[in-house]
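Researcher: We plan to redesign the surface later, but first we want a full-length starting point. Tokens attached.
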């Protein structure tokens, strides 16, 4: 038979080896899908769903450059209300090595290593698996604009946003938003 000749057997074996190597190289990389940091996105989206379902009354005060306004309201869209917290999530693949972590079991502190990152520090206090409070410090700066934010969240008690903006030619704006959960 034609394919039993020694030269053809070597080519056949080489061909099979080439196919096996080719198939092996098509194997996808194993990805580490575990999150390195606390998942703010998941936590605050779950809080938004929970708060939307319970519909608590909030004593909300907003202050802009010293002028304050307060109201008791029921917030319809909690995901929008907690958006600054959600967008401070640091679980991005490119940032896996961009934050230092100190975790003693009850308080976890994530600190930015790179100065260009918006979220500079996150502090999370836990009792067991339950979050007691979260504080987030954000900072953005460029030639025209500087913004600093301090976000605080105490589940079922209080959330706060302090924001200071400095825009070249337009001046400085200070914002303070507080929401107290009424029982």
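Model: Full-length starting sequence:
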């Amino acid at each position: 038979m034609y394919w039993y000749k020694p030269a053809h057997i070597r080519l056949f074996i080489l061909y099979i080896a080439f196919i096996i190597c080719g198939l092996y190289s098509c194997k996808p990389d194993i990805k580490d899908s575990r999150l390195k940091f606390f998942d703010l996105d998941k936590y605050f989206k779950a809080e938004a769903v929970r708060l939307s379902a319970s519909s608590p009354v909030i004593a909300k005060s907003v202050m802009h450059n010293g002028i304050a306004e307060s109201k008791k309201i029921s917030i319809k869209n909690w995901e929008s209300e907690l958006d600054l917290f959600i967008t401070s999530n640091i679980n991005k693949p490119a940032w896996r090595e961009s934050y230092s972590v100190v975790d003693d079991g009850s308080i976890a502190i994530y600190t930015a290593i790179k100065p260009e990152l918006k979220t500079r520090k996150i502090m999370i206090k836990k009792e067991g698996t339950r979050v007691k409070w979260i504080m987030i410090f954000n900072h953005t700066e460029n030639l025209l604009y500087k913004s600093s934010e301090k976000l605080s969240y105490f589940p079922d008690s209080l959330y706060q946003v302090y924001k200071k903006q400095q825009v070249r030619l337009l001046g400085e704006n200070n914002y303070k938003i507080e929401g107290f959960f009424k029982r």
